[in-house]
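Morning!

This is the sequence you dropped in the shared folder:
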Amino acid sequence: MPYFWIAVLACALLTEAFTADLVAIWFFPAALISMVLAFVEVPVPLQLLIFVAVGLLLVFATRPLCKKWLKSKDSKTNTDALIGRVALVTEEISNIHERGEVKVGGLRWSARAEDPSRVIPVGTEVTVLEIKGVKLIVK
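The structure's back. Tokens below.
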């Protein structure tokens, strides 16, 4: 019976690895406990009962908390992380002349002013408002 619980452990881990949605990870500790019980020769029906009880207890007690915690960890990635950041103008920004460049996060980006009639001189700190194509729209 210990080999059965080792297989259940492996299946729980593989299922979780392929779904990554907190589906089967809760049955890993339950299978671990049942495996220990199998090694000390606890009757099989009791092993199964403990596996089901511990697995369900973990699912209902901790899954909602973990889902809430993981959902709150949303972070901006790639270009979304630039919005709201401060950039330094490295080439005068002029929408009329279709030129301008800023440096943000160690990278240079083409930039345009939010106000099309405004010219922003070199050395000015600006805030990134949005990204249109490959250009940052700044203010």
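Headline: Residues 62 and 79 are 34 Å apart (CA to CA).

More detail when I'm at my desk.
O.
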